[in-house]
User: Fold this.
Amino acid sequence: MPKVDLSAIEETNRTGYPSPYDADVAGRWYRRLAPATGLTDFGASLVRLEPGAWSSQRHWHEGEDELMAMIEGEAVLVEDRGRTLLKPGDVVAWPKSVADGHHLINESAADCRFLVVGSKPAGQDCHYPDIDLIADGPTDDYLHKDRTPY
Amino acid sequence: MPKVDLSAIEETNRTGYPSPYDADVAGRWYRRLAPATGLTDFGASLVRLEPGAWSSQRHWHEGEDELMAMIEGEAVLVEDRGRTLLKPGDVVAWPKSVADGHHLINESAADCRFLVVGSKPAGQDCHYPDIDLIADGPTDDYLHKDRTPY
Assistant:
């Protein structure tokens, strides 16, 4: 297909977050675009947040750049730097290793949709400043901050 | 800034295309997002096409993946596979080395805006099937198809 047939790509709300951190992203629905389209140099997902849903737990990556663009609806970006309302056409870039956790919360009454792009997994940790969680770089496993398993 | 301050990034219609191939992209205005935001793993631009403008000459990359998402307005995707109207929320992926040239033409009466993401330059050629042009991988110079300079 010249245009990506989004209806042919599974929309899922799966998460590897251990309980209770999974509940916040139950209304995050995403389609992984790269495996479905043959892209291998970077990852990309089209994400739909239901009202109240979080895009993720607040996090930052040691080794991966991230970029998002809002396509439809609104969400609030939450960082140490503050809260920012994102509307269609707004773009946010998170260069790797900037130690300011981020996530989006849909505080509106309607779904929002955005594209997010990220580097290929770099084998470096992902940090979750608000909760007892770290994603181990080499294994991508979720661990307690003392690096014991859940 | 948590959100990218687009007004602080130069919007340009510069092109390295030799004449007369530059004329088709005179109404293509873009902001390069990666250098302005510190991203280094991939490139990204926010592009605005005026009515009649082309996103590029029709091309395909030997060594670079590309992905775009329409944010506002409409454009027609042109490939060997056919013509496809793109509207907000539509996504197109072009895996590297698929030898089907692509570009977008804004055939509407209003500007359109889209995000496009691409791999870091891979040092491999970019091919232009419709015209006497090739972008040399190692140098990124535009050459005649017989590889003589313009």
